[in-house]
Structure formats: structure tokens, C-alpha cells
Backbone:
């Protein structure tokens, strides 16, 4: 079935280093969402991107949506130990009809930050 | 008000037994979603309600799984004849509208273990 591929699966960084996770789809996406899940916690919504080429920033986090709306990235500048967790992208992928609520999640990127 | 709540937080059951998992969405949220998350994976869509009706149940793995939302608020996910492969964290989420992809608020999940 349709998938959202996310890389890398793991990323280990030293505190202060930058971090990027990438999300790719073989089909054009209407929009894409990003979630963060802390260890032992549940996914928490970070942002939604809708427009082609859109770039949004939240403090040290920068989110991009590709021009073709098939890929997206999340970049964290100068990581901190509080950034630890798994970052997921998620998008509505049609399967024979419109289902706005059906989000397909990527596998996630597990970020560890060494102090 | 309060966020999404789920009960129980943990459920251990024997293979073949029946279980019910409950979700209390955020008050006023029209849409309610059930996901299943296995270790190291992203949430996997099961079913989505818009009001009382199941708008998309294409993610339910088989007919042992069933979910209801009789009054458009609380939802119950029911699993018959549980199997060891059903062991996972079952996440519930709600969103305000659901007729377009909007921010989903996740509950803490129910960890189901089938022995």
C-alpha cells in the first residue's frame, strides 16, 4: 500500500549539534504533519504544512514541504537534551476515496542527544 | 479542559479472551481516531469516527476488531478472541472537525499484552 518513508531510523548527536529527519512519499501529498513522541509518551502534534515549498519555524525547529509536495523535512538547530524523542511525519494517503482523517505515519526517527 | 483519556492504561489478558478499551476524547471534538503502535513503529491507523459513525474502518485488521461511538463522544475498541499478535499500545486521538486533516490530540494509550 501507499507509504510514507522516513529516514534515518536513528540519529545520535552531541548536544549542540544539528539534526535533520526526512520524509518521502511516492505520491503527491495534500499536506503533512509532524509529531514528537517522548520516550514512554504519546505523539504530540508539532506542525502542519499545506503549501508547496512551505517553510515554517518554531524556535530551533524548521519544517519544510517540498515543491512537489512529495517530501518534507524537520531540522533542529543546536539540539538540546529536551529534544530527545521520536519524530514522526504523517500524511493523509488516499486508498480508493477521500478519507481526511486517515493519517499514515512514517516509521519515525529516534533522536538521542548526548550531553 | 482535560486532554484525551484512555482506560485502562495497561491490560494483560490471556489468549482467546475478549477486551474492551475505552477512549474519552476532548470535549467538543467531532472526530475520534484509533491507532495501534508496536515497538519501534509509527502509529498504525485502525478506524476513524466522525460523530457517531465510522467514517473509515479500513485499518481494522480483521473482524475480531470492532469499535463504537454511540453518542458521538466516548468510544470503545473491542477485540474478540485476542491473539498474542494483538499485543501493542492502542492509541486514541481526537480532533476538532475531522472533515479535513487537522491537528490530532493523542491520549496516553492502553498497553495491551496478550499472554
Residues:
Amino acid at each position: 500500500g501507499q507509504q510514507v518513508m522516513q529516514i534515518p531510523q536513528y540519529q545520535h548527536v552531541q548536544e549542540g549539534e544539528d539534526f535533520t529527519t526526512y520524509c518521502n512519499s511516492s505520491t503527491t501529498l495534500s499536506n503533512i504533519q509532524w509529531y514528537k513522541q517522548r520516550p514512554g509518551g504519546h505523539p504530540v502534534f508539532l506542525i502542519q504544512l499545506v503549501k508547496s515549498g512551505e517553510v515554517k519555524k518554531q524556535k530551533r525547529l524548521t519544517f519544510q514541504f517540498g515543491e512537489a509536495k512529495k517530501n518534507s523535512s524537520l531540522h533542529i538547530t543546536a539540539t538540546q537534551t529536551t529534544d530527545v524523542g521520536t519524530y514522526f511525519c504523517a500524511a493523509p494517503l488516499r486508498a480508493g476515496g477521500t478519507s481526511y482523517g486517515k493519517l499514515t505515519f512514517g516509521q519515525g526517527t529516534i533522536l538521542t542527544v548526548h550531553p | 479542559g482535560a486532554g484525551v483519556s484512555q482506560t485502562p492504561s495497561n491490560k494483560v489478558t490471556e489468549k482467546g479472551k475478549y477486551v474492551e478499551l475505552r477512549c474519552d476524547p476532548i470535549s467538543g471534538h467531532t472526530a475520534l481516531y484509533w491507532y495501534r503502535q508496536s515497538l519501534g513503529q509509527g502509529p498504525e491507523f485502525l478506524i476513524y469516527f466522525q460523530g457517531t459513525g465510522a467514517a473509515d474502518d479500513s485499518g481494522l485488521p480483521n473482524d475480531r476488531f470492532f469499535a463504537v461511538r454511540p453518542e458521538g463522544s466516548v468510544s470503545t475498541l473491542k477485540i474478540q478472541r485476542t491473539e498474542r499478535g494483538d499485543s501493542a499500545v492502542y492509541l486514541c486521538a481526537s480532533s476538532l472537525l475531522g472533515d479535513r486533516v487537522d491537528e490530532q490530540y493523542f491520549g496516553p494509550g492502553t498497553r495491551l499484552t496478550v499472554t
Q: What stands out?
A: The longest strand of chain A covers residues 85-92. The radius of gyration of chain A is 14 Å.
